[in-house]
Specification:
It is a single chain. The chain has eight helices and five strands. By secondary structure, it is α+β, with helices and mostly antiparallel strands. A five-stranded mixed β-sheet has the order 2-1-5-3-4, covered by helices on one side.
């Protein structure tokens, strides 16, 4: 069947089998491999993308069911200049990534939370942890991820996207005394690895 999607702002038209999964179209059909495949059963959350602004697990959605929708993957989160989004930068600052395999799905899921709380009271730690129940991580223990979300929400509410995107004054915006914050910049190799993880690139 002939279908169309808007993926990361670009119109895509293609033929797909009725049983094709959205994650298969994104990875195999469009080459957007930042979206990961983990469990194939909707448990791990590595395949999360945003469908018309809502975070969904793309291994559970047929491509045909998403036809005509707007899909955003991790590749569509960074700016055109390659700078990290506010949430990605906050996770990097708080060391919210390790192996990075689960990070793209977390960014896509948590991005909805940050967006929804930009104009209201920031989510509590229990609320953030509840939001994370659909994303499994075997490395971080979630503590640094929670701090990253808190930092991103704080920045979003103070309306300083330029500083967050560039990573120049995150500490000043979110509070340099946050638990786990580094007092000195990470070595270049560490920063590069963390940036690659949060952007979905292979390291």
């Amino acid at each position: 069947m002939d279908l169309s999607l808007n993926v990361n702002g670009r119109p895509e038209q293609f033929a797909a089998e009725p049983n094709e999964l959205l994650v298969e179209r994104l990875r195999d059909g469009l080459g957007l491999t930042g979206t990961k495949v983990g469990c194939d059963t909707g448990q791990c959350g590595t395949c999360v993308v945003q469908l018309d602004g809502r975070s969904v697990k793309s291994c559970l959605i047929l491509t045909a069911a998403a036809a005509g929708s707007r899909v955003t993957t991790i590749e569509g989160v960074t700016t055109r200049g390659g700078e990290l989004s506010g949430l990605q930068e906050a996770l990097r600052q708080e060391h919210g990534t390790q192996c990075g395999f689960c990070t793209p799905g977390m960014v896509m899921a948590l991005g909805e939370l940050v967006e929804n709380t930009a104009d209201r009271e920031a989510p509590t730690e229990p609320e953030i942890r509840e939001w994370l129940t659909g994303n499994l991580c075997r490395c971080t223990g979630y503590h640094s991820v929670v701090r990253g979300v808190q930092r991103a929400c704080s920045a979003a509410r103070t309306e300083i996207p330029a500083e967050i995107s560039g990573g120049a004054a995150v500490s000043a915006a979110a509070g340099s005394g946050s638990a786990g914050s580094a007092s000195e910049p990470a070595p270049a190799s560490v920063s590069a690895s963390a940036s690659a993880s949060v952007s979905g690139k292979e390291v």
